[in-house]
């Protein structure tokens, strides 16, 4: 009986778990950190979006369980902004800046 338990435990720890890592980075506007801003990441096949908030340094860190192409969204100046991000097995850094164009429209730009 004991050998069966050992085999089951060994199999549980040997089976790879298909999940991704963390998507993290900073978001800045005019060179300054964008703080207290909700960050949402949606991935194909995920049951729900992954959510986080930027801190005083404009940094965010969100655990994402799906691998592949995802979309990061924020709201600034009453406008929604989005950019593609990629979730991997290991942590993936994605830094952004909000850039205001000549037309006064804001754009989320990857750095």
Number of strands: 10
> What is the count of distinct domains?
1
Taking the alpha carbons of the first and last residues, their distance comes to 57 Å
Helix content percent band: 10-25%
CATH class: Mainly Beta
Class based on secondary structure composition and strand pairing = mainly beta
Number of helices: 1
Largest sheet: 6 strands, mixed
Unreliable segments (pLDDT under 50, ≥5 consecutive)? 5-18
User: What would you give as the CATH superfamily?
Assistant: Immunoglobulins
Provide the residue-averaged pLDDT.
86
CATH fold title:
Immunoglobulin-like
Please tell me about this protein's structure:
- The structure is a single chain.
- The chain has one domain: Immunoglobulins (Immunoglobulin-like).
- It contains one helix and ten strands.
- 12% of the residues lie in helices and 50% in strands.
- The protein has 111 residues and is mainly beta.
- Strands 1, 2, 5, 8, 9 and 10 form a six-stranded mixed beta sheet that branches. It has a four-stranded antiparallel beta sheet with strand order 4-3-6-7, with no helix packed on it.
- The radius of gyration is 19 Å and the shape is globular.
- A hairpin with a 2-residue loop joins strand 6 and strand 7.
């Amino acid at each position: 009986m004991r050998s069966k338990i050992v085999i089951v435990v060994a199999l549980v720890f040997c089976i790879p778990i298909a999940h991704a890592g963390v998507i993290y980075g900073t978001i800045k506007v005019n060179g300054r950190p964008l703080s207290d801003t909700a960050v949402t990441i949606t991935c194909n096949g995920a049951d729900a979006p992954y959510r986080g908030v930027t801190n005083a340094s404009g940094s965010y860190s969100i655990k994402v369980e799906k691998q592949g192409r995802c979309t990061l969204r924020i709201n600034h100046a009453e406008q929604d902004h989005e950019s593609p991000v990629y979730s991997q097995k290991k942590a993936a850094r994605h830094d952004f800046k909000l850039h205001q164009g000549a037309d006064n429209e804001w754009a989320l730009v990857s750095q």
